[in-house]
Amino acid sequence: MKITVAFAGLLATSLAAPSTGPVLVSRSAGINYVQNYNGNLGDFTYDESAGTYSMYWEDGVSSDFVVGLGWTTGSSNSITYSADYSAAGSGSYLSVYGWVNSPQAEYYIVEDYGDYNPCSSSSATSLGTVSSDGGTYQVCTDTQTNQPSITGTSTFTQFFSVRESTRTSGTVTVANHFSFWAEHGFGNSDFNYQVVAVEAWNNYL
To answer: How confident is the model over 179-204, as pLDDT tens digits?
Structure first.
């Protein structure tokens, strides 16, 4: 699969069964954080100063990874990106991804994905929809019990906004999602890291 993600000056690429090309993302603050959860499953390389990363992995790996570039402290600032991402038939997301410290929460603004929509999960709770950036996003939450987190094993809420008409370029007005989630328990402050990420998991790899 090949995936490329970039922020005005940030380009990320990943390779495996499905395929993707470049992604360009921009924000006024410079890139200062590298996300590499299980990136050792493949060949994860990056140039932080150039805002580029790439990932190549083999099919059949029964695990998951999350790689990306972004910021040590997230914010509601808008992010503009351009990507070549094609994940049909895979378990994968292209998203703005991050964490809030308190109350602890993991969040995804999913711009494109393979064949799994997290808001279609039987365990997800629908919160309705948000209109933003020329599209409609399904919004839902899920609870992870005793799962890995930024503080070790813990129980936390996941917040998802999943774009109905998927895309691989555009501007994500992050504040629109944070404001909507805040009506449903999202802290909307005390941010941990935030990245434009590629995630893939389980036997899809």
So the answer is: 999 999 999 999 999 999 888 876 54
Closest Cα partner for 67 from 20, 101, 117?
20
Query: Cα 53 to chain center, whole Å?
Result: 15
The chain-wide mean pLDDT, for the chain, equals 82
Q: Half-sphere exposure (CA, 13 Å, Cβ side) for 201?
A: 12
Under a CB-based contact definition with an 8 Å cutoff, are residues 82 and 22 in contact? yes
Point out the catalytic residue in the list 48, 58, 164, 199.
199
Query: For the whole model, what pTM was predicted?
Result: 0.88
- Nearest CA-CA partner of 72 in 107, 30, 114: 30
Annotated active-site residue 199? The verdict is: yes
Look at residues 167, 145, 8, 153 and name the one whose alpha carbon lies nearest to residue 85: 167
Catalytic residue among 106, 111, 164, 183: 106
Cα–Cα distances in Å, from 60 out to 42, 63, 88, 205? 12, 9, 16, 5
Q: Is the pLDDT of residue 19 over 60?
A: no
Pairwise CA distance, residues 73 & 81, whole Å: 19
Q: Output the six-digit token pair for 162.
A: 């999943």
Residue 204, both tokens? 């899809």
Q: Which helix (H) or strand (E) segment is 65 a member of?
A: strand 63-71
183 is catalytic: no
